[in-house]
Description:
Layout: E1 2-5, H1 12-24, E2 29-32, E3 37-40, H2 45-57
Amino acid sequence: MKTFKVPEMHCEHCVARINKALEGAGISHEVDLDKKTVTITDDTESTVKETVELLDDLGFTAE
């Protein structure tokens, strides 16, 4: 598992956008709005890279 901090995530709309993008890519994940985190279950290099790119495309920083 790999957890990213996503400081720009601040509302349910942000969560919905992230969920839609990651689900569309087939990435198993969990979003925690209170902690401002996204956790993916597959922490292979390719999935981590794809997740970071998807979040970036949505305007979010993955730390």
